Amino acid sequence: MAFTSQQLADxxxxxxxxxxxxxxxxxxxxxxxxxxxxxxxxxMAAELSPSDTAPRLRRYHSFRRD
Length: 66
What we know:
This protein is an alpha+beta fold. It has a domain at about 5-50. About 40% of the residues lie in helices and about 10% in strands. The protein contains 2 helices and 2 strands; from the N terminus they run H-E-E-H. The chain has helices spanning about 5-15, 35-50; strands at about 20-25, 25-30. The protein starts with a helix and ends in an 18-residue tail after the last helix.
């Protein structure tokens, strides 16, 4: 599922306020628990964060004594 940064921000605000109901863009979502909200928040954050699957660049330096 594709999430937006605005959805993540709305969910973060609801968690911070301690409410289980989020209303945004004419949609109302009611969560069962704070744990469910945090689980979804972590899923959204992981999906929106840059991928760690890109290869990492390694540099090796060599030195010579003359």
